[in-house]
Design goal:
563 residues; alpha/beta; single chain; 23 helices; elongated; six-stranded mixed beta sheet
Length: 563
């Protein structure tokens, strides 16, 4: 019981079958993590051993402290690239200062993520638009490819090994999609590099001896001056890593049918980045390259990630002499393959076909990723997506409603742009969206246009079911509209406003000023109450006869119009 409260309800599901399934999934995760962790450490400009450590410690902490049962955390391509690019102006890649700053910024990211979780603000990750992440990862793919190819342009043997690695990875993925093709490509390409050096006397670089495969405790060398200098970088990395992790967790939760607590997942990521730097781990996040295969391999609980970390440690200890002979050109080839697979062409195609606005945000973020410092690109992309969201919500639709059928049911439908007859005295308007300070100007203009039209309908019934909330400015708008309708000898009515809206109006006394029989639970009772209040002289000369109640108004022909 105590364990389930500490780690989550999955603890109660652990048995022999789940342990076996998790162990098998963990073994696959370790095989995938071994080459990726070395490659992503190189991408971040950090020692290969740090990549292995990051595939071990954060993987365990994030799994046990987080919410998702199948997300595996560790080094990832986008975060590794972002870390390297953001620290590049501050220290030379691979230098002692660069290594120190990598640990410090990871600690700051952990603090931010943990604070977000403790203050129940993990839901803020939902405001990181998928379009921003698409643009960033696509731009990151180009930067990764450029970074990998930079050192190969003037070295033909290294370029050959890299291209061979890329070809082997692509061929393996096509022929054996479930096999550890990246590991096989890395091994075969490194053997080729070793043969070229030994028999063809071609000078090629290799990883070299690892200091140690076992992650050990060390104090993070934090200096107070680092905080203001690295704060912006830490915020940007927090956005990238959390956005990536939460997006992956949501996809996997939808596929597996498992619940997801975003705040707890944020806590898991925060604790993993808090603990990691003390074991020479750099910034980690959820990894799609490992999480999706983990789910497909049958992982049942977060223990699959624990098994994966243990297997990485065992493999690293057993294969440390062999890892020393991994060719750097082969790692560059793997990074080229990562760059190719990082571009989500289907997502781009879907955006271009269905939502040009979101496609523009993704495109702007991509360009910013290429030409601006990455922290500015990420923050700018998030800002742009929020501006786009605010613009859209600031223009809620106000649709004219009416009747187009003459049977007994005769449902109310949108009649904008049609020649459907309307009542000359009662306007039926559906409000689609919240009325807050940003939307007040647009809604006010539309209401003014209705009042200023030739022979305007003096009474207005607002279908308010889709008006989710009103703030002070929005409430003031409806109060002013009520006064203006009264001034033109009309009135204002509402159909099914939400409880939150009613509570706001009640606190302000608006419901009292509005009066009884002005807020209705259904359209039929609303129209039945409003039509008898209309001007009988106008009704006498009206030929529209839109409502059933019109049959009882002055000038009605014999019979019943029906609704």
């Amino acid at each position: 019981m105590i364990l389930s409260r500490l780690f989550g309800p999955w603890v109660l599901d652990v048995d022999r079958r789940t342990l076996r399934a998790d162990a098998l999934a963990g073994l696959l995760g370790a095989v995938l993590a071994l080459p990726q962790s070395i490659a992503f450490a190189a991408l971040a400009g950090l020692p290969p051993a740090w990549g292995l450590y990051t595939a071990i410690v954060p993987c365990v902490v994030a799994a046990l402290a987080g919410s998702s049962r199948v997300v595996m955390s560790g080094p990832t391509n986008a975060v590794s690239l972002a870390l390297a690019a953001m620290l590049a102006p501050l220290a030379l890649a691979g230098s002692a200062e660069h290594l120190r700053l990598a640990l410090v910024v990871t600690l700051l990211v952990g603090l931010l993520q943990t604070a977000l979780a403790l203050f129940r603000l993990g839901l803020l990750a939902n405001f990181i638009s998928p379009s921003v992440m698409l643009g960033f990862t696509s731009g990151a793919a180009l930067l990764i490819a450029g970074h990998a190819a930079e050192d190969l342009l003037h070295d033909a043997p290294a370029a050959g090994v890299a291209v061979g690695t890329l070809a082997l990875a692509a061929l393996g993925r096509r022929l054996w999609p479930r096999a550890p093709t990246l590991l096989a490509a890395l091994v075969l390409a490194s053997l080729a590099a070793w043969a070229l050096q030994r028999y063809a006397q071609q000078p090629l670089a290799f990883v070299g001896t690892l200091p140690q495969a076992w992650p050990s405790w060390r104090w993070v060398p934090l200096q107070w001056g680092d905080v203001p200098r690295l704060a912006g970088i830490a915020v940007a990395l927090t956005i990238v890593s959390l956005g990536q992790t939460i997006a992956i967790a949501k996809v996997l939760a939808a596929r597996s049918g498992q619940p997801l607590d975003v705040n707890r997942e944020c806590l898991g990521q925060g604790l993993s980045n808090l603990v990691g730097p003390f074991f020479s781990c750099f910034t980690s996040s959820g990894s799609l390259n490992r999480s999706l295969p983990n789910l497909e391999a049958g992982a049942r609980t977060p223990l699959a990630a624990v098994f994966s970390a243990l297997f990485v440690l065992v493999l690293a200890l057993a294969a440390a002499p062999l890892i020393a002979w991994v060719a750097l050109a082969a790692i560059a080839g793997l990074l080229l393959w990562v760059a190719v697979t990082l571009v989500d062409r289907d997502h781009w195609r879907r955006l271009l076909q269905q939502d040009r606005g979101e496609a523009a945000i993704a495109g702007a973020t991509l360009v910013a990723t290429l030409v601006l410092p990455l922290q500015e690109a990420v923050l700018g992309g998030v800002g742009l997506s929020l501006v786009s969201y605010l613009y859209r919500t600031s223009r809620p639709a106000l649709r004219t409603m009416g009747f187009t059928r003459h049977d007994a049911l005769r449902p109310m439908v949108v009649i904008d742009g049609t020649s459907t007859p309307e009542c000359p005295q009662l306007k039926l308007l559906r409000m689609e969206g919240s009325v807050y300070f940003g939307a007040v100007a647009h809604v006010s203009e539309r209401l003014q246009a209705l009042r200023s039209a030739p022979a305007p309908a003096r009474h207005l019934l607002v279908m308010a079911k889709s008006m989710n909330f009103v703030d002070d400015a929005g409430a003031t708008l409806w109060e002013q509209e009520h006064l203006r309708r009264r001034a033109m000898d009309g009135d204002l009515y509402f159909h099914r406003p939400r409880p939150e809206v009613l509570a706001t109006w009640r606190k302000r006394g608006f419901l009292d000023r509005l009066g009884p029989q002005h807020v209705f639970d259904d359209k039929r009772s609303a129209i039945a109450a409003i039509v008898p209040r209309l001007d009988g002289a106008v009704c006498a000369g009206c030929t529209a006869r839109v409502f059933e109640e019109c049959a009882r108004q002055p000038g009605a022909p014999g019979g019943d119009s029906g609704r």
